[in-house]
Design brief:
Elements lengths: L18 H45 L21 E6 L5 E5 L16 H6 L5 E4 L6 E8 L5 E7 L1 H36 L1 H14 L15 H61 L6 H32 L6 E4 H15 L5 E5 L4 E4 L1 H17 L7 E8 L8 E3 L9 E8 L50 H11 L3 E6 L5 E8 L2
Parallel strand pairs: 7-9
Antiparallel strand pairs: 1-2, 1-5, 3-4, 4-5, 6-8, 9-11, 10-12, 11-13, 12-13
Helix pairs in contact: 1-3, 5-6, 6-9, 7-8, 8-9
Catalytic activity: ATP + protein L-histidine = ADP + protein N-phospho-L-histidine
GO molecular function: ATP binding; phosphorelay response regulator activity; phosphorelay sensor kinase activity; protein kinase activator activity
Keywords: ATP-binding, Kinase, Membrane, Nucleotide-binding, Phosphoprotein, Transferase, Transmembrane, Transmembrane helix, Two-component regulatory system
């Protein structure tokens, strides 16, 4: 199976990940090693013991003087029944003569052809192992010197020893596998029983992550580690719940204060702007005497009143949207919204090359007015914070998967999204420092002078969008409002920038 482009190859992990599986696997591995060591030691010791018994028997036969001596030549006769003992002589040249113990059905002997007589004489009185002349068996051999310069050899087959060891290995294997199965079953049951408190803690953590802040770990025996862990977690959760309640209460108080203050500020700001306009109309009618200094001051008062009015409107929008994020979704064509935004921007900045690229119609269920405000803010932001004549490019496309998110991003797409709409606003200005990208969508955040166009000072990137009335009036609220609107659509808004190469803002909306 091929790996999708951009995806990391899945690594093979032979060792289990869960704690219970690891404990069980570790126990079975240790038990297997112990059984293997026990079986190996038992087999080796039994083999040594059996061979020692064979050696003792051979030594007793070797010490027998004159008893059971091989019959003279011509009088050799087979034993009345098969035996695993052999007694024979070797002449000075190492040739076998006068064998006792061999039958017609079992004529195997120790194979001493590879050992010369001198080597065999050096082994007199010391048992050694030799291969068999028939089959794959082996013999235990003991030699002694005879009076004519030859060697007398007594030997016993090790076939019984080898058969006994083979049966022992089979028994150990069967018993070992049976024990492993029994120990494995017992280990699984024991581990599951002992890890039950940890599963309770896991379920509690999942419930809390899902929003159930009042959930607590069930009480356990405080004498156990899991009981003490659960008690410590419950204490920590209680403190966190109190802190969260305090935070929510503080945030709600602040939100109400901002909303009330913004609402109350609208009237005096309107009055200030009205008085400034009345002064201008009086001067035009000749009622008020013309004074250059007064005119400049009144003009500044009117501009600042309008700026504060725009900021108050933005605060009201954010406060109301935080309280009840109301949308009016309908079937909209995103390319048409982008086209209207670009047309309005071209009217405001006729000297700017503003391009629009829509490869195909992209339909979505969204609030058209809110999306237009988002694009107005992003395009206005690009126009405001780039030098005159800098190109701005807007593109609307459809994609099978979300594009990579930049270092500064807000919002999360729903799980299982198979198709998305991607809207990008790209400029070729001075860019934004990388360290400022993660905070770019924060409220009232004002970026440094690197983003500001010549002559504008250290304006905030969130000050664009005056055409929609939600630019924030230079207070750093435009991008915060855009991010809030995109999040309400279950989409993402991200920014990526390289200083000296411009910035690109990307809106991703789910389609299916």
């Amino acid at each position: 199976m091929s790996t999708p482009p951009g995806a990391r190859p899945r690594r093979f992990r032979p060792w289990p990940r869960s704690l219970g599986a690891r404990l069980t696997a570790t126990l079975l591995c240790l038990t297997s090693l112990c059984l293997l060591a026990f079986g190996t030691a038992g087999t080796v010791l039994l083999r040594r013991s059996l061979i020692e018994e064979v050696d003792d028997r051979l030594v007793r036969l070797w010490r027998t003087e004159g008893e059971d001596m091989p019959p003279p030549p011509g009088e050799e006769s087979p034993p009345p029944f098969p035996t695993d003992l052999r007694t024979f002589e070797l002449d000075a040249d190492g040739e076998v003569r006068r064998v006792v113990g061999r039958t017609t059905s079992d004529d195997a002997l120790p194979d001493l052809a590879d050992r010369d007589p001198a080597e065999l004489r050096s082994l007199v009185g010391r048992p050694f192992t030799a291969p068999s002349t028939e089959g794959d068996g082996s013999w235990r051999v003991l030699t002694s010197e005879s009076g004519d310069g030859g060697l007398r050899v007594v030997a016993q087959s090790l076939s019984d020893v080898e058969n006994t060891l083979d049966r022992l290995v089979i028994i150990e294997t069967v018993v070992g596998l049976t024990l492993l199965l029994a120990i494995g079953a017992g280990a699984v049951a024991t581990v599951r029983l002992q890890l039950r408190p940890l599963r309770e803690i896991e379920r509690t953590a999942q419930a809390i992550a899902g929003g159930d802040w009042e959930r607590r770990v069930p009480a356990q025996d405080p004498a156990t580690e899991t009981g003490r862990l659960g008690a410590a977690l419950n204490t920590m959760l209680g403190e966190l719940a109190r802190a969260l309640h305090e935070r929510d209460r503080s945030a709600e108080t602040t939100r109400r204060f901002v909303a009330d203050a913004s609402h109350e500020l609208r009237t005096p700001l309107s009055s200030i702007a009205g008085f400034a306009a009345l002064h201008r109309q009086g001067r035009e009618r000749g009622v008020v005497a013309a004074d250059a200094r007064t005119e400049r001051w009144m003009s500044l008062i009117e501009e600042e009143a309008q700026r504060m009015g725009a900021m108050v409107d933005s605060l009201l929008i954010l406060s109301r949207f935080d309280e009840t994020p109301h949308l009016a979704p309908s079937d909209v064509e995103l390319g048409e919204i982008a086209e209207r935004v670009v047309a309005a921007a071209r009217v405001r900045s006729p000297d700017r090359p503003i391009e629009l690229h829509v490869a195909e119609p992209v339909f979505a269920v969204a609030d058209a007015e809110r999306l237009r405000q988002v694009l107005d803010n992003l395009v206005g932001n690009a126009l405001l914070h780039t030098p005159p004549g800098t190109p701005v490019r807007v593109a609307v496309t459809r994609a099978d998967r979300p594009p990579p998110r930049g270092p500064g991003a807000v919002g999360t797409l729903p799980a299982g999204v198979s198709e998305v709409a991607v809207i990008t606003v790209r400029d070729e200005g001075r860019g934004i420092p990388r360290e400022e990208l993660p905070r770019l969508f924060d409220r009232f955040y004002r970026a440094g002078p690197a983003r500001a166009a010549p002559g504008t000072g250290a304006a905030a990137p969130g000050t664009g969008g005056g055409g929609a009335g939600t630019g924030g009036g230079g207070a750093g609220l435009g991008l915060a409002i855009s991010a809030r609107f995109v999040e309400a659509h279950e989409g993402t808004l991200s920014v990526d920038s390289t200083p000296g190469r411009g910035a690109v803002f990307t809106v991703v909306l789910p389609l299916g």
